[in-house]
Amino acid sequence: MKALILFLFLVFQFASLSVSAQPGSKITNVLFINSTNQYMPWHKSVEEGLNSELSTRTFDYELFVENIDVGRFDEATQKQLMSDYLKQKYKNKHIDIVVTLSPSAATLISQLNDFFTSTPKIYIEPGEQFRLPANTNNALMQAKLDYKQATASAVNLMKPKKLIVILDTKNEIGINFYTGLFNIISQDFSYLEIEQWFDLPAAELMKKVKNAPSDAIILFTPIFRNYENKSISPYQLVSLLAQHSNAPIFSYWEVLLGSGVVGGYVLSGEKIGKRVGEAIISYSENNVLPTISDENLSVHKYDWRQLKKYNVAPQSLTEKSIIAYYKPSYFEQNKVLIYSAAITIFVLSAFLVFVLRLNRRRIQLVNALDEEKLRLESRVEQRTKELLQAKEEAEQLTSSKSEFLANMSHEIRTPMSGIIGLTNILLGKNLPEEDKQYLEKIKYSSDQLLVVINDILDFSKIESGNIKLEAFAFSLNAVVDYITTTFENRARSKGIAFEINISDNVKHNLVGDVVRINQVLINLCSNAIKFTSKGAVSVQIDAEEAPNDAKSIVLRFSVKDTGIGIDEKSLPNLFESFTQADSSTTRKYGGTGLGLAISKRLCQAMGGDISVSSTQGEGSEFIATINVEVNTQALIEDSPQLSFAEPFDVLLIDDNEDDLSLIKSQLSAMGLRCTPCTQASDAIEIIKKNINTYKIIIVDCEMPTMSSETFFTRIYKVNPLLCNNIIILTASKNDAIYDIAKKINIKTILHKPVLTSVLFEAMKSKVVSPSTSNTHKPATEKPLQGVKILVVEDNAINRLIVSDILAASGAQVHVVENGLECIQTVKLETFDIILMDIHMPIMDGVEATKVIRSDSNTALASMPIIALTANVMKDDISHYLSIGMNAHVAKPIKAKILRDTILNCLNQ
Fold it and tell me: Which H or E run includes 670?
C-alpha cells in the first residue's frame, strides 16, 4: 500500500514539473495615452475599437490606459507633473508599444527623451504641425474628415434650402475646422443659402436654434461652452440644441450620435481604434510597425429616433447605412393588422364549421325521408298528405341550403379577398425575414381555407345535380404535362419517385371535360403523395373500347402508391362525403374528407367510376375510369376554294397519323408541296439538310418523344429566323405553350380543330405579307401600359388591392364607390374598360350595367365591363353575362387572371 502511494506521488510531481516547464505565451503590453479626461466619448470610442480588434483576433495583450488631461491644462507645470507621473508609474514595467490620442498627448510623449525611447509609438491625430521624431520606429495616423462627402450626404438626404454652420474661429481646432469645412461649402454648395453661427455663446445659440427654419440643416463642429455657470462638453451642448431645434442637426463624428444629431457620413472612433489594433498585431508578428492607412475611417450611421422625428424613410439612406438605437419590429408596428387577420380567419373557420354541420344535418334529413318513404309504402293513400308535406320541406331545405351556400360564399370570399390581397401586397415589399414568415403563414392559411370552400361548393353542385360537363378537344399529353408539373417537385421533396406511363393503345387527341379529368387526377395523386413517405407513386393510363359506342373510349387511370395503406374496415365508407380513414382527433393527415367523394361523383357523371384496393402498411391503388370521345377533326373545312397562286414547300410534324393525313390532304388541295413527319427528331434533321427550303413549318405541340420547348429551342439554334415561319397546332388550353412560344418569337398558335380558312390566312400572312414589320411592345413595357380603367367598388380594402394590381401593370386607375357614381363618371370622362363590383349601396353593379348598356351613346354602351365579385355560383355568372357584362373575375382576386381577362376583353 505504501509503495502504491509513493508511486502516485512521484507521477503527480512529474506531471507538475512537465506543466510548469512549458513556456508561457507572449503577452503584448500596450500603453494608451489620451490627452483628455476619461469621460470624453471620442476617447472611449477609440479605446473600444482598439480593445475590440485585439480581443476578436485571439491576441494576448494587456492594455494600460492613461487619461492625462493636458488638453485642457496646457501649462508647463502641468506637463512636467504628467511627465513625472508617467515615468514613475511605468519605471519598472515592460511596454511593447505606446499609442497616443490627440495633439497634446503626442507632443508630450515626443518630448520625453527618457521615456521608452526604443519602444515603437503610434500617434493618433497628433495635429497638422506634428512631425515624427527622427530615427525612431514610429507611425502616424491623421484621421481625415471627408467634409465634402459628409456634407453632400446630409444635403442629398434632407434637400435643404439653407446651411447653418456652428464653429469657433478663436482656437487652433476651430480654425482647422473652418479651413477644412468652409472652403468645401463655399465651392460645392454655393447654390444654398449659408448662415454662419461662429463664436456664439451657448445662450445665443439656444435662441437661434429655436428660430431655425425647418427647411434648413445645421452642421455642428465640436465646441466647448459655459452654460448656466457650468462648463459643458460638445456632446452636452448639442443635446441642448437638438431639444429646441426645428432644423435637423448633422455632425461629422460618430461619438455625437445619441445626443440628438441625425448622423450622416461620420468619422468613426471605433474604426480608428480597430485600424490601430491591426497595426499592433502586425508589429507583434513581424517586429516592424507598418504604415497605418487613414482612408475609409467614416461610416454612414444614423439615429433612428431622429430619422423618425424628421420623417426620413430608412429606405432613402445610402446602402450599408447603420441605423442605431431602438427600432420597433414590423410585427410591433402592424400587430393590429396581423391580429385582425388572425381573428378574421378564426371567425371564417367558425362559419365553415357551421356550414358543414348544416350540410350534414340536411343529408341526415334526406336519408330519414327516404327511410320513411320505404316504411310508408303500405299506407300510401293514408299518408299521402304527410309525405307530400315532408317532401316539400326537404325541397325547401335544399333550396335554402343552396341559397345559404351562395350567400356564405360571397360573405366569406369578400373578407378573404382583403386578407389575401393585402398579404400579397405586403409580401411584395422589402420586409424583414421574420415578418415575411408571419405573412406567408397567413397566406397559406387563407389559401387552405379557399380550397375547403371550393370543395364544399363543388360537392353542393354535384349533390344538387347542377354540375355541367363540357366537351372540348384536348390532348392527353397536356394532361400528363399538367399532372407532372403539379406533383413532380412535391414528390421529389418527400424523397419518393413519381412517374406516369401511357399504354401504346391510348389515343392522344380526345374530346371531353379536361378540367374535371384533371380535378380527379389531382385528388388521387395528391392523396397518394400525402400518404406516402418512401417508395414511389405511379400513374398508369390505359384505354379500352366503350361498349355500344364506336366513337368513344374508356380511359383507365390507375394511381398506385407504396404508402401507409388503408384499413379494410374503412374501405366501404371511403368515398362517402366528410369521411376519412383516420377521423381521430390525433390524426396526422388533414383534409375535409370531400376529395374522394367529389372525384367518384365526377367519374360517374363522365360515364365511369372509381374503385380502390389497399393493404395496410403496403400501399393502395385507386382506379378511375372516364368515358371520352376520340377527336377525329384536326381541320374543319369551311372554304374548299382556297389555294395559293405560287406553290411552296411546307414541313408538317404530327405524331397522330390520322391528323397528319388529313392536314396533308388539305395543304395539297391548296396547291402546296407538303413533307409529312411523325417524329420531332426526324424533323430536326430534315430542317438541317433543307434549311432554306420550307417557307412554313406546321407542328403539333404535344409530342411524346420530345418536349415542345426542346424541339422549338433546337430549331431556334439551327436558324432563329425559322421561328417566324412556325405555326403551332394544339388541342390543349395550357398557358405554358404561350410562354415557350414567346421566348423564341413564335407568334402563331392555332387550336384544334381549326378552320381551313384560318390556317390559310395564317400561312398567307407569313408568305405573302410577312409580319416582320409588326411592332411589338418592348419586353420591359407593362402589360396594361396606358390602359384607362374605371374601378367601381364600395369596399375600401378591395379598392386598395385592385388599384395596386392595376397600377403595378401600368394602368391608369380611377376609383368610384357605387353604381351611381360610375354612371356619372363615364358620362364626363372616357375609359377603356370598367371593373364592376355587384353588391354596392345606392346602386348595385347589375343595375349600373343595365343603365350603361341602354345609353344612346354607342361608344359608352359598348364599353367592356368585367364583373368583379365574390359570387362564383354558375347561375350568378350566367346572369351577369346575360345583362351585357363581358367577363367575370372571382374574389379573392389573382393578379394574372385579372390582367389576362382585361387584355382579352380589350382585344375582343
Answer: none
The answer to whether 52 and 270 are in contact (CB under 8 A) is yes
Prediction pTM value: 0.39
Q: Which of 139, 135, 88 is nearest to 115 (CA)?
A: 88
* pLDDT tens digits for range 448-492: 566 666 666 666 666 655 667 777 777 777 788 778 877 888 888
Least trusted range by pLDDT, from 64-68, 518-522, 532-536, 701-705: 701-705
d(CA 883, CA 905): 16
Rounded percentage of the chain residues whose pLDDT exceeds 90: 16
From 529, 763, 805, select the one nearest 635 (Cα to Cα): 763
Phi, psi of 369 (to 5 degrees): -65, -40
User: Which residues lie below 8 Å from residue 617, measured CB to CB, with a gap of 6+?
Assistant: 564, 565
**What pLDDT is recorded for position 592?**
55
Q: How far apart are CA 884 and CA 862, in angstroms?
A: 9
Which CA distances in Å does 80 have to 34, 75, 584, 876? 16, 9, 89, 99
Q: How far is CA 630 from CA 55, 627, 633, 750, in A?
A: 79, 10, 9, 19
Percent of the chain with pLDDT over 70: 83
Determine the 3-state secondary structure of 295 from DSSP: coil
Q: What angle do CA 530, 357, 389 make, to 5 degrees?
A: 135
- SS3 of 56-109: the string is HCCCCEEEEEEECCCCCCCCHHHHHHHHHHHHHHCCCCCCCEEEEECHHHHHHH
Query: Which is it for strands 609-615 and 812-816: parallel, antiparallel or unpaired?
Result: unpaired
192: burial class by Cβ within 10 Å (0-12, 13-18, 19+)?
middle
731/737 Cα distance (integer angstroms): 11
At a CB cut-off of 8 Å and minimum separation 6, what does 341 contact? 419, 423, 442
| Location of C-alpha cell 345559404 | 404
Dist CA 260 CA 264 (whole Å): 12
896, with CB counted inside 10 A (0-12, 13-18, 19+), is: exposed
495 φψ region: left (φ > 0), alpha (ψ -120 to 50), beta (else): left
- One-character DSSP codes across 211-273: T--TTEEEEE----EEETTEEE-HHHHHHHHHHH-SS-EEESBGGGTTTT--EEEEE-HHHHH
pLDDT at 773 exceeding the cut of 60: no
Cα(177)–Cα(34) distance, integer angstroms: 21
231-266 pLDDT, tens digit per residue, is: 888 888 999 999 989 999 999 888 888 889 999 899
Give the angle subtended at the CA of 534 by the CAs of 529 and 539, to the nearest 5°: 45
Strand (E) or helix (H) holding 865: strand 865-869
Residue 429, C-beta contacts closer than 8 angstroms, at least 6 positions apart: none
DSSP class of residue 531 equals T
**What whole-number distance in Å separates Cα of residue 86 and Cα of residue 105?**
12
**Taking 50 as the threshold, does the pLDDT of residue 587 lie above it?**
no
Among 369, 341, 340, smallest CA distance to 449 is for 341
DSSP string, 121-174: EEEES--TT--PPTTS-EEEE-----HHHHHHHHHHHH--SEEEEEE-SSSHHH
Place of cell 367558425: 350
Q: In 238-269, which positions are buried (b, 16+ CB within 10 angstroms) versus exposed (e)?
A: bbbbbeebebbbbbbbbbbbbbbbbbbbbbbb
Report the DSSP pairing between strands 216-220 and 138-141: unpaired
Q: Which residues contact 630 (CB under 8 A, 6 or more apart)?
A: 507, 509, 510, 511, 551, 552, 553
Task: Please give the single-letter amino acid code of residue 149.
Answer: Q
- Containing H/E element for 901? helix 895-907
DSSP letter at 324?
E
